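Q: Could you fold this chain for me?
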Amino acid sequence: DKPTARIPPFTPNSSGSSLPGPSQEDRELSNFLRNYQLNHMAPAFLPRGLTNRSNWCFVNAILQALLACPPFYNLMKGLPCVLGLKSGKSTTPMIDSVVEFINEMTPLETMNKNQKKDKARKKEDLPTGNALEPSYVYRTLLQLESETFKVIEGRQEDAEEFLTCMLNMISDEMMALLKLTEEEPEDSQSQNTSGVDEAPAAPLEWQEVGARGKSCVTRRITDHANIVTPVQQLALGLCRYSVKSANNETSATLQPFFTLQLDIQSENVTSVDDALLENFSSEQLDGYICSKTNMEVEASRNLSLEELPPILILHLKRFVYDGTTGGCQKVMKHVEFSVDLEISRDILSVASKSKYTTKQRQYKLF
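A: Sure. Below is the predicted structure, expressed as structure tokens.
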């Protein structure tokens, strides 16, 4: 048997409660998110720089990268600007602050055909707007109560941790909104069944038939009633961690991710492609105890990609623990990467090797 557990991504706000007394605006926003389809059309807006103040560069760097991500920009641009943020009563503070920031970008004026054909027109540099400070996002971060990502004015933080925190907060806020339009069907269903199935739903289990006809039980611990937010559709991938022992005892864990962590310490890693192959290669485990015999046996661990997101975010782990000093040390090595990246079938899980076409495994740096 092969038990499989699904670990939900980090959630800074673990309350998980739905919004009390939803307004008509919230329900309309909920329906908007439920019916939203990702839009990959690249927008054209007036470039504006971001001013760095009090070590907020880790935020500005991520916001600038997200501006260059068309489906994220189009999603946040399509959301209505909620006034709750300015009054201090917002139930979706991260969504509202990012929407405010996105709305600071004004579309570029398009030239008509006559302007394009005008040979006398001088070629001018790309116009730019005034620099701005995304203070809406700063204030939202300073009000975070989570100990997982605690922001203090003037202290430098990790950019990747901020990105993961922000994506999870936006996804959680969207999840709460999406649950608003799930309440009525759930109520009517519970009334029709006269109280049956009122207990919490058990983890999903099903029988899988693998290679050579071997069957195994696969388990996924699902959360949020299988609701998928637009942010999850955009950037949430899934890794499979498999462990196999010498006596054929196997286990697997399915873990979602917004950022794919890549260790680059090995001397074999000189490029992003090398890092992917190195991180997804099989390795021997020490001290593995068999659950049946309670004795130490040989075992190996294998990491593979189960699901590929439309937008793949790679994180090169340049900070490592130094046992000598007891602190962190930065890996200064040069790591090459090209504009085009193709995910090799070798690092896909068995179930996903035939799931994705060559084009679906290709990414382009933006």
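A (continued): The radius of gyration is 24 Å.
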